[in-house]
């Protein structure tokens, strides 16, 4: 069974940092892109970033230069380092396995507030 | 990276068919066979219903189908059921090597 389990969310002040983790299991981790997708309260889905096993990455313009996605293939884990956080980064962050399966984790809530 | 355009809401009666559109450009929807659709019920994680424009993943009802014409992809749900009431989102790969979602469509089953 494919599982994606996010962790690391919480309350952080504006300008602060947070690192999210996504532990994957049940599939061959190195053959899939892994995405981070976020959803602000009551809003739609927004693609944030993705990474392949060779380290190839891409980011949405809204987070470029502030967020860094990385992965540890030995631990089947993907990370999202979030720096210079803003109130508008408040959202549930989902870890997602790439097409065609598009399996989602349960999400982790990040709240940026003073 | 502008969001793909979806209608904010659609509705239909049980048993009817509805179609949700997802409009982009030749740099995303019209340029790649990487358009997928997700269903999201309140307080739940999204679930894929169509992948790669027309492919229905294992376990997804045959009532869900996908298509594309030019720069517009469409999701059709036939034989509407109460359980289909949810938000639906499209996503497409883009020429920038990124992905972009549509704004989402709320489906109401009357």
Could you explain how this protein is built, in words?
The complex is a heterodimer of chains A (114) and B (110). Helices cover 0% and strands 49% of the residues of chain A. By secondary structure, chain A is mostly beta strands. In chain A, the strands form two sheets. Chain A has a six-stranded mixed beta sheet, with no helix packed on it. In chain A, strands 1-3-8-7 form a four-stranded antiparallel beta sheet, with no helix packed on it. The relative contact order of chain A is 0.32. The N and C termini of chain A lie far apart (40 Å). In chain A, a hairpin with a 4-residue loop joins strand 7 and strand 8. Chain A is built from no helices and ten strands. Chain B is globular and about 40 Å long. With 110 residues, chain B is mostly beta strands. In chain B, strands 1, 3, 4, 7, 8 and 9 form a six-stranded mixed beta sheet that branches. Chain B has no helices and nine strands. The interface between A and B is medium-sized, with 21 and 26 residues.
